[in-house]
Amino acid sequence: MLFIIHYLILRIVGMLIGSYKEVFGINVHSKKEGVFMNELYLMKVGNLYGFINNTGQFIIEPMYCDARQFSEELAYVKTTDGKDGYINYKNDMIISIDADYYGQFSNGLAHVKINKESFYIDKSGNFSIKPKSVGVTGFNQSGTAVVRTEGKWGIIDKLGYYVIPPIYQALSNFSEGLVAARKDDKEGYIDVNGEMVIDFKFIKAVSFSEGLAVASLDGNNYGYINERGEFIIEPQFYQAFDFKEGFARFRDSKSKYGFIDKSGKVVIKNKYQYVGDFSEGLAVIQVKDKQGYIDTSGKVIVKPVFEPASEFKNGLAQVNYGGEWGYINKKGEFVYKPKGFDLW
């Protein structure tokens, strides 16, 4: 009897875990193969697009004349005979739709444009929302999207109802519970109820990231404020960007890029032609029009030889060499090597 009870408990727990993974979209990891089974990467060979896994094996052979990366297990593709839609990991065309613009799925919905009108479709291809507005963004993790109606900006939920009414000159989406908004030519922050929490006193204010937001009082010097609107890092930068993984990139008046930490200290000297945000511990750098990667100490991990290089996602980054695509891991080793690459 005890054995039967124990067995039933294990079955119930297993079912609950399975449901939890399905509901919350957790990747199922195969220890046997050592790969994320539901993660595919866009790959272009010649003029056709396909998808590989993280070992460089083609799961969907190059067969599309246009395609985008997978998002929430669906990817936009255009067939060679001109049909548009979204495929799943099995290469089944789940949604067939003729539109002018195809957005990625986010929070279960994708933004599409048909005859200059914006709509949102669900994963079955049904029109979920037909807002009387110009769609501006896809839905973010909070389940909201920024839209514009008659020149004014607001925010809708997944049912199409306004969370923030369209009364602002400009809006960001929710980030860390706050929205950067512009009213009467000044910018500040409102909360989920539309109440002002930081005065409209800035010439420029952007979304919060890692507890701080870029802001400027004069439009010439940028610093970082906290959620009370206090400058934690005084305005001093010609151009400043969001914090990612504890670091923020900045650009000086001579168009050189570097990184600061959350104290405002320059930790990686502004000497690069361009830098990208840190992602999975590495950031893109550009030197003499070629791109590579550095780590958070500023050490060059992958030499700048690509044109261009993208940020890392799930351990891989897409790179281009001589017009040919490839993917590298965080050691700079090729999972899929571009044709003609012979530098290492």
Can you describe this structure?
There is one protein chain. The chain is mainly beta and 344 residues long. 7% of the residues lie in helices and 48% in strands. It is built from 1 helix and 35 strands. The chain has one helix at 2-24; strands spanning 29-30, 35-36, 41-45, 48-52, 58-67, 75-79, 84-87, 93-96, 101-102, 110-114, 117-121, 127-129, 134-135, 145-149, 152-156, 162-168, 170-171, 179-183, 186-190, 196-202, 204-205, 213-216, 222-225, 231-237, 239-244, 247-251, 257-260, 266-272, 274-275, 282-287, 290-295, 300-306, 316-321, 324-329, 334-336. It has a 6-stranded antiparallel sheet with strand order 3-4-5-6-7-8, with no helix packed on it. Strand 1 and strand 2 form a beta hairpin. It is flat. The relative contact order is 0.06.
In short:
The chain is mainly beta. The protein contains one helix and 35 strands.
Attribute tags:
344 residues; mainly beta; six-stranded antiparallel β-sheet; four-stranded antiparallel β-sheet; 1 helix; 35 strands; 48% strand; flat; disordered N terminus
**Distance between the amino and carboxyl termini:** 63 Å
Radius of gyration: 23 Å
Count the strands? 35
- Report the structural category: mainly beta
The largest sheet has its strands arranged as 3-4-5-6-7-8
Sheet with the most strands? 6 strands, antiparallel
Shape summary? flat
Strand content: over 45%
Q: Figure out the total of helices.
A: 1
